[in-house]
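User: Structure please.
Assistant: Input sequence and predicted structure:
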Amino acid sequence: MLGLGTGVEYYDMVDQRYSVVFDGTGDYIALPAAIGRTTGSMSIWFKTSETGNQVLIGAGDKDDGINRWAILLGDALTSSYTDEVMELNITIDNVRIIQATYRSATATLFRDGNWHHMVLTMSGSANLMYVDGTVLASGSGQEKLNYQSGATSTGNVLLTTSDLDSIGIGRRFYPTSPLNFTGNTTEFAMWESVLDADAVTAIYNKGLPFDLTNNRGNYDVAADLLYYYRMNDGNGTTVVDSKADQDGTLSADATFSANTPDD
């Protein structure tokens, strides 16, 4: 059950002390390429009020860019529409396998200066994106996740470690257009399993993160957690992975910040 619960659960829920802040001019968190996956789930909290296009998470080959994927936020992310505010873009051997954009009449949706929570699940049967505990339903038109190429059932196409040498939070690894992120992120996690809707809602937890190494309510997949970057380190340049010792590194001017979803 969601809610404050006992004193122990309350501490567990709000024990988020830091995020990482990016200024949009080259900052990112470099993660080991070994964490690349073809299936499973990833989750991140983010906060931005940037008006231009930017990359929340990206991966690829930093030198040639022929294999890459990215989750982007922005104003007009493709040339198809002017109301695209979020995009999942996957390119393999320079062929765009998936380009899914979320269209909204609210231009600042997800970029309103408030904390938001995003989950991406990839499987052989469906690729789903959730924001703030709610799935972005696929379809056509506004308030839908529109697939320009590929399909919701494509699955299994996130790049493997043989296809990429770089993964980063706040960076697109594409030599001619390495977009960055402006704002804050925290609590990046990856699971080997495909999270169901109940687990995603539980992780969002009405906007308050909790320690994902422990099951809690409808979140019952702690055993499937592969990598977990709480960003609670607070100083230095290391971002500790509390699950598999695949630590990340703050790059350029990225720094720790006391601004968190708990504020």
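The chain has one domain: 15-257.
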